[in-house]
Amino acid sequence: MMRKWLKLLVWALLPATAMAQYKPTWESLDSRPVPAWFENAKFGIFIHWGVYSVPAWAPKGVYAEWYQQWLQSGKTYGNGQNGTSAVLDHHNKVYGKDFSYYQFADYFTVEDYDPDAWAKLFEKSGAKYVVLTSKHHDGFALWPSKEATKAFGRPWNAMDAASKRDVLGDLTAAVKKTPLKMGFYYSLYEWYNPLYQNKQYHEYVTTHMIPQLKDLVNRYSPDIVWPDGEWDQTDSLWHSKEFLTWLYNESPVKESVVVNDRWGKGIRQRHGGYFTTEYEVGKTFSKPWEECRGMGYSFGYNRNEDIEDYNSAQSLIYLLLDIVSSGGNLLLDIGPDAHGKIPPIMQERLLQIGKWLDVNGEAIYDTRAWKTPVQWTAGNREQPKHKGYVSAEVLLKQTVDPAPGYARKELFFTRKGSTVYAIAPVMPEGSIEIQGVTPAKGATVQLLGRPGNLQWTKTAKGIKVTVPKLTAKETPCEHAWTFKVTQVS
108: which of 17, 57, 230, 482 lies 20 to 30 Å off by Cα? Predict the structure, then answer.
């Protein structure tokens, strides 16, 4: 009797995800809650790094990590490109017609790679998780994957090729020394894998793809599994439901792992874990979601991009606010070069965001969306439509530099229990009315980064806060300022 009682007690104390046994159906798999740590994190670092980091070139507005596809197909697509031969022409001019993409593996040397320095930078940025490309669409693996080298008949993983190093394992170990979570991007399809090219899809999935995915999970215990390249085939062909059933029921990370929604053609924003968007602005969903994008118009490092192609720290902070106020996370990408160096402009942007979060992180981490994401000024709220990959710089037009006649986002809101945070991209002069909040007895208003409470009065629409006139030295941060309102009913 005592043994039975102890067994029941143990089961009662286990998290819900540990007790559940999921079935290979979307109805069952979708019932698994997204682990809370993900919604609490809000800000993550995406890393696109691989053989494509050697040429590191594409026309502006184009994904440089797609170099092999642009080269071997002879056609380049992206913002301002519609099937041009730009990458092919560049390659033939710089490397010659006989230089194969696979030869770039001989130059992916990563001799400047310092994973501990990377991890420290990510921690200073204020990010709470990291997602590294374990393998992009070219099939090159950043860990000692025997399947990768076997498939291509040449050294096609980081250990077998020029770097002679488990670069993924080294970063995993470095990140796990910090409080950050560690995850892996993984491309389901590979452009020029012989099995995939010859449409031997079952063999590709069962002898190559699934063994690689399980190897990653068993070897490195990731906090996130982030598939991509799913659009080419159905979830049934990818065996996605079967893999997720193993991941949720049997894997070493079954209780804690987070996954996205990229598991097959037509599955995105319908099934899986959290939903994803890419180079978009203004989306919102009723479940956990994440926007991913680079600091410029490419995920992989593109040496063709100039300073004006990079988002400013100001626009990236406003992007973070726009996403978090709508209940989402921002996965901001960096693209190291082939030597293992994170470009200084990317380092600077991360440190600038981290400096802002040092003051205002309380209004970001562990928060949830308030009943109203933003407070608008008077004017037209219908923002101009944008085609292609949308720059974060559009947030400047929505906040500090609206076109004539257009409204601007005056406040972004987040909440934590009975506390509401109202974040202003323009420091108000004299006073500001925070609408939609009903203060209860004992309510206070503070400006994060400044001691003491601010004066306020109740209004018909909310509260009116007196804003002190601050010198530049007294202003707690740059770009956006947070009013913390406690005891809101």
Answer: 230
352-368 pLDDT, tens digit each: 999 999 999 999 999 99
CATH code of the region 374-485: 2.60.40.1180
From 136, 128, 205, select the one nearest 168 (Cα to Cα).
136
Give the strand pairing for 181-187 and 224-228. parallel
pTM exceeds cut of 0.85: yes
Which of 315, 427, 439, 422 is CA-nearest to residue 374?
422
Pick the CATH number of 22-363 from 3.20.20.80, 2.60.120.10, 3.90.550.10, 1.20.1050.10: 3.20.20.80
pLDDT band at 3 (very low <50, low <70, confident <90, very high): low
| HSE-CB of 8 using CA atoms within 13 angstroms | 5
- Sorted by where each begins, the domain ranges of the chain are 22-363, 374-485
Nearest-CA neighbor of 244 among 220, 262, 270? 262
Give the pLDDT of residue 19. Answer: 56
